[in-house]
Amino acid sequence: GGMSWALMLHPEGLPCDVFVTHCWKEGVYEFIDKVLNSWPGRARHAYCCMLSNPQNLDIGNLISSPSTSPFARALHASTYMLVVPNQRCSIYSR
């Protein structure tokens, strides 16, 4: 406990190739279908907040400095960015 799913699997972390952003209004099956169908061919590892950040903890200290937050660090390290749309609403309207 006390950590994200990704860190439970890989405590040392992994290099980030793909930064994935989404709207939080999609179901997991819709989300994974779109990610897999859009996956960059040479990419191996991705950052997605719902898997990379501890969802049941207060992450205020992780995001208190936006430029050094996990989001910013992953985005800076990534070669690719996936913006995952969904059927319920525009990702740009959230």
Provide a quick synopsis of the model.
This protein has 94 residues and is of the alpha/beta class.
Kindly list the characteristics that best describe this protein.
single chain, 94 residues, alpha/beta, 3-stranded parallel sheet, 5 helices, 3 strands, 12% strand, globular
SS content category: alpha/beta
Strand order of the largest sheet: 2-1-3
Termini distance?
30 Å
User: What is the radius of gyration?
Assistant: 13 Å
Parts with pLDDT < 50 across at least 5 consecutive residues: none
Estimate percent helicity: 25-40%
**Topology pattern, helix = H, strand = E:** HEHEHHHE
| Strand segment count | 3
- Helix run count: 5
Largest sheet: 3 strands, parallel
Instruction: Bin the strand percentage.
Output: 5-15%
Overall spatial form: globular
On the 0-100 scale, what is the average pLDDT? 84
Structure, explained:
This protein has 94 residues and is α/β, with parallel strands linked by helices. Helix content is 34%, strand content 12%. It has 5 helices and 3 strands. A 3-stranded parallel β-sheet has the order 2-1-3. The radius of gyration is 13 Å and the shape is globular. The mean pLDDT is 84.
